[in-house]
Fold this sequence. Notes:
There is one protein chain. Helices cover 0% and strands 53% of the residues. The chain contains no helices and ten strands. A hairpin with a 4-residue loop joins strand 7 and strand 8 (78-83). The radius of gyration is 13 Å and the shape is globular. The protein has a six-stranded mixed beta sheet with strand order 2-10-9-4-5-6, with no helix packed on it. By secondary structure, the protein is mainly beta. The model has no long low-confidence stretch (mean pLDDT 96). The protein starts with a strand and ends with a strand.
Amino acid sequence: QVQLVQSGGGLVQAGGSLRLSCVASGRAFRPSNMAWFRQVPGKERSFVGLINWSTGTAYYANSVKGRFTISRHAANNTMFLQMHSLKPEDTAVYYCTPDSFWGQGSQVTVSS
């Protein structure tokens, strides 16, 4: 059974940068795509971006385009979310997912 373990996140001032990691462990892991979502209290999870696992092509929500970069190291079953120029509205719990299950979440807090 595949498990997703996230790391990274934390507290940063507006304009700062953070990087999240998501590692898949367990049986052979070959998703079609991997995605990042985020959630703030009282709201549904919202799409941040995704990466095609085989090609490495990434797609982003308009709200993060140009500031966030998704990459992956397929051989290590690892996906990254590099976040730059962070804004207070980026504050959320971030989750990785291949669609059918989720990582444990990583808190990102951006202070103004």
